[in-house]
Design brief:
Layout: E1 3-5, H1 7-18, E2 22-23, H2 30-33, H3 37-52, E3 56-60, E4 71-74, E5 81-82, H4 83-95, H5 99-115
Parallel strand pairs: 2-5
Antiparallel strand pairs: 1-3, 3-4
Amino acid sequence: MAVKLNRRGEQHARSLIRERQFVADERDAWSEHRPSAKDENRYIEENGFGAYGRWFLGVDDAEPEDTKAHYAFPYSDFERVHRCGLLAAESRAGQYDHHDIELAVAHLHGMIDALA
C-alpha cells in the first residue's frame, strides 16, 4: 500500500474551513456522520471520481484512480468538513505511519478549533 497525502483533498478541506463550511463535532461522531457506501456510490454516479477524490486526504497509488480503493482518509459528508472525520483520519494516519497525512490533518483540525 503506497498511501500518500492527497494535496487536492487537503486544499479542498482548507478552502472549506476558511469558508466556515465545517462541523465542529466530537471525536466519536464520525461513525454517524461518515457517508455510507450507498451515499458514496450516489456521489460518484452524480459527480465522478474526480470530484469524489477531493473529499479524501490520502491516495493509494497502488490502486486505479477510478476506484474507491484509490482514496483513503475521508473527512466529510460531501458538503462540509467534519472535525470528527479529521480526528479519525489523524489517528489512523499515525497508526499506519503516514506522517505527511497526519501532519496535514493536525493542521486542518487546528484550523477548525481556532475558528470554532
